Amino acid sequence: MRFLTLYLRSRRVPLALVVAAGGTALMWGIWQLASDDRDANSTVVILTVLIAAACFTHTLNGPDDELERTAAVRWPRRRATHLILALGVTVALVLATLATGARFGPPLFVLRDAAGVLGLIALGAALVGPARSWFLPLIWTLGVAIFPQPSPLPAVVATWQHQPPGSRPAAITAVVLALAGLIAFTAYGPARRAAATQA
After folding, report:
1. What are the Cα distances from residue 39, in Å, to 31, 91, 102, 110, 197?
2. What is the DSSP string of 107-154?
3. 114 contacts 27 by C-beta, under 8 angstroms
4. Longest distance between any two alpha carbons in the chain, whole Å
């Protein structure tokens, strides 16, 4: 139990949870006040998923880069568990709105987008570090929100976040991104920070 407490604190998880919940609540409040429609549109939902997921970027590494690579701790299992729990929390926060007057859904849509976005974040964390891992998901999501494309297939794949829940190409794209991020981050961990950043 003590290890878990130290782990969560060193990863700034409590702060991430508060910020993710606050960001989701803010988006919920904006939709509640600005729209007469109970169901939020897909653009608002994908932006909310991005905000909630992005809050966990700084939990993907600790204060010591060398400790992340020691063989004394089974890091791959912990990294995979960390990502899966981040996905669960992200989905839970967004789907909690289904019981309110402003609903963010449907559930499969939220799960697919959250898995794909967290996969992108995890992949970024492994390649460029957690501090910059949210850049690609942000740019991709904003592009999708501004230029949604119903067809042809390459456009559907590129705008997978905006596709309806039953879209098979969108689901496959999200799964590929989720697995790529999970495998890369689990196997290699976060990219090392530059010495100037650590100082």
Report:
1. 9, 16, 6, 13, 43
2. HHHHHHHHHHHHHHHHHHHHHH-GGGTTHHHHHHHHHHHHS----SHH
3. no
4. 55
Contact 110, 91 (CB under 8 A): yes
CA angle 79, 176, 77 (to 5 degrees): 15
Q: What is the pLDDT along the chain (199 residues), one digit of tens a residue?
A: 677 788 888 889 999 999 999 999 999 999 999 999 999 999 999 999 999 999 999 999 877 666 666 655 678 899 999 999 999 999 999 999 999 989 999 999 999 999 999 999 999 999 999 999 999 999 999 999 888 877 899 999 999 999 999 999 999 999 999 999 999 999 998 987 644 344 4
Question: Which among 104, 113, 90 is positioned nearest to 28, based on CA atoms?
Answer: 104
